[in-house]
Amino acid sequence: MEILIAEPKGFCFGVKRSIDMVEKALKEGKKNIQIFGPIVHNPQQIKLLEEKGVKMVNSIDEIQPGTVFVRAHGVSPEVFRKLKEKGVVDIIDATCPFVKVEQEYAKKLAEEGYQVIIIGEKNHPEALGAQGYAPGSIIIGSVEEARALKEVPKIGAVVQTTLEPEAVDDIVAELYHKAKEVRVFNTICQSTKMRQPAAKKVAEQVDLMIVVGGKNSGNTRRLAEVCSRIKPTYHIETAAELKKEWFEGMKKVGISAGASTPEFIIDEVIEAIKKMDGSSKKTSKKKSEK
C-alpha cells in the first residue's frame, strides 16, 4: 500500500508562531501562564501545554495574576480592553499576523462607511474577533445567508483566513446583488490557499483519504469536506482512531493534515498505517503548485 502525503501539512505559520511564543515564555520562567481560549484547535497540543503548566481559561473572570496569551485566532478590541482592566497580568498577543490583516481591513471598511460583511463561521473565534473591529458588521457563511441580506449602498467584505476559496467565491458573487458598490478583501491565508488544492490533488490519486487534526478545527473539517467530495475520507485526531478494515483492498492512501495538527501526530498516523499494511512501503509527498 502506497501512502501519499499532501504538502503543506501540520502547523501553519500563525499556529507555529503562537506555540513558539508560549514555549519561549515557559523557558523564560514566566509565572502562571494562561491562554484566553484554546491557543490552537487541537486537543493533543493543548494537553502538551497543560502538562507543562500552561492553563486554558475561557472567561476573563477566570484569569489570575500572571501572563495571559491572546490566542492565534485573535480577540475583539473589547476583550483586549477588559484584559487590560484586570491590571494584574502581562498580556502577550499571539494573534496570527494574517488574522491581524483581516481585523485591520474590517476596521478600515467600517470607518469608511461600508456595511461590513465577515465571510466566515458564525461562532468561530476568528470571525467573532474580527467582528469586534467593525461595529454593526454581519457574519455570514453561506450563499443563502448572503441572499437574505438587505440591500445597502455599499458593502465591504473580509474573509475568515481558513475558508475554502471556491465557497467564498459563490458568496461574494451573491453580494454583488446587494449593493451598488462592493469591496472585498481576500484575507484567506496562503497556507489555506496551498493546503486545500494539495489535498484535492492527492485525493484524486488515491483510493482513500485520511485527514488528521482536531475535530474542533474548522480548517481541518474543511479539508475533510473537500476530500470527501472526491474519495472516501475519514477525519481523525490520532492514530488510535484508525481501523484496519478501512484499508482492506486499498492500494493508495492519502494523508492531509490541518493547520493546527502537530507533526508528531501526523508521523504516528503514518507509522500506524504502515503497520496495518504489514510493511513500511513507499511514502510519497505531493506538493501543491504555487
Describe the structure.
This protein is α/β, with parallel strands linked by helices and 290 residues long. The chain has 3 domains: 2-10 and 191-287, Cobalt-precorrin-4 Transmethylase, domain 1, CATH 3.40.1010; 13-96, Rossmann fold (3-Layer(aba) Sandwich), CATH 3.40.50.11270; 98-188, Cobalt-precorrin-4 Transmethylase, domain 1, CATH 3.40.1010.20. The protein is 38% helix and 21% strand. It has 10 helices and 13 strands. It has helices at residues 13-27, 43-51, 77-86, 97-111, 125-131, 143-147, 165-175, 190-203, 218-228, 263-276; strands at 2-7, 33-36, 55-57, 66-70, 89-93, 115-119, 138-140, 154-159, 181-184, 208-212, 233-236, 252-257, 283-287. The strands form 3 sheets. The protein has a 5-stranded parallel beta sheet, sandwiched between helices. A 4-stranded parallel beta sheet has the order 3-2-4-5, with helices on both faces. Strand 10, helix 9 (218-228) and strand 11 form a beta-alpha-beta unit. Helix 8 (190-203) runs parallel beside helix 9. The longest helix is centred in the first third of the chain and has 15 residues, at 13-27. The chain starts with a strand and ends with a strand. The model has no long low-confidence stretch (mean pLDDT 92).
Report the average pLDDT across residues. 92
- What is the spatial order of strands in the main beta sheet? 11-10-12-1-13
Q: List low-pLDDT spans.
A: none
CATH level-four homologous superfamily name of the largest domain: 4-hydroxy-3-methylbut-2-enyl diphosphate reductase, catalytic domain
Topology:
Blueprint: E1 2-7, H1 13-27, E2 33-36, H2 43-51, E3 55-57, E4 66-70, H3 77-86, E5 89-93, H4 97-111, E6 115-119, H5 125-131, E7 138-140, H6 143-147, E8 154-159, H7 165-175, E9 181-184, H8 190-203, E10 208-212, H9 218-228, E11 233-236, E12 252-257, H10 263-276, E13 283-287
Parallel strand pairs: 1-12, 1-13, 2-3, 2-4, 4-5, 6-7, 6-8, 8-9, 10-11, 10-12
Helix pairs in contact: 4-5, 8-9
